[in-house]
Design goal:
Largest sheet: 6 strands, parallel
Helix content: 25-40%
Strand content: 15-25%
Distance between the termini: 35 Å
Radius of gyration: 18 Å
Number of strands: 12
Order of helices and strands: EHEHEHEHEEHEEEHEEHEHH
CATH architecture of the domain at 3-145 and 183-207 and 254-261: 3-Layer(aba) Sandwich
Shape: globular
CATH superfamily of the domain at 3-145 and 183-207 and 254-261: NAD(P)-binding Rossmann-like Domain
Structural class: alpha/beta
CATH class of the domain at 3-145 and 183-207 and 254-261: Alpha Beta
CATH topology of the domain at 3-145 and 183-207 and 254-261: Rossmann fold
Length: 281
Amino acid sequence: MKVAVTGPNGRLGQELLKFESRGFVGSYADITKPKDLQEELDYLQPDIIINCAAYTDVDGAETKDGYKEAIEVNTRGVSNVLEASVCPVIHISTDYVFNCLRGPYREGRIVKFPVNNYGYSKWGGEIMCRLHRRADREVTVVRTTGLFGGVADKPDFVSNLLTHLEAKSKFKATAQLYGNQTYTPFLAFGLLQLVGMSNWSPIIHIASKDVVSRAVFARKISKRFSEPYSRLVVPSQNNEIPGWVANRPQHGGLEVDLAKQIGIRLWTIDEGLDAYFAEKS
């Protein structure tokens, strides 16, 4: 079996390519260029595609040019992948498609009015998946959230916090934003398991088992770094976080019962942090 991974240079894409011995290969064509994408997929002839390509700059998407790019990649790009292929497709999405007022969310919850442009662009990608789904080809949306770890040269929430702790400077972490903070290699393993299964659900959530606020997550990190340093974490409101322009969903997160039921292995946030610090040691 050959599994083509779009967005192979991203955090999740690089983790999936570690399964090269299991048939995972990178698809490096720009998904916003249909002709180039078609030519590459015709050459690769994959049995399954995992679409990890995405525009992920939540605040950048609030600008005119950023939102245009987000739509090109996260909505039209998804359509391009689906139109260029005849094999099953797994598309990676996010809990940001919800307005996140009453999370965590199960797969069957209806998406209504995301709170920022990034969320709308990812919602558009999910709609494309629904429109392209047919009886003779499986298309599934895998929602996840709060990825960290796995790629040393790509900063994430954990590495940013550790930089502040090393400098002994205070770090504002929102107590309003909730999610299943997910260790990227664990998500990659879950996708590997999903690839080996049949009769996929149209939507499935793969993330950590538990849901916590960013402030709680930050304290978990700081205590592992050094217990006294936890005082440097300052629980804050969303509008107090430096650099944030876009609205953030508040009571978000994903229910993962379906993934557990079908046999996908899931871990807790604490287990993810244990693996992260073991990886960095």
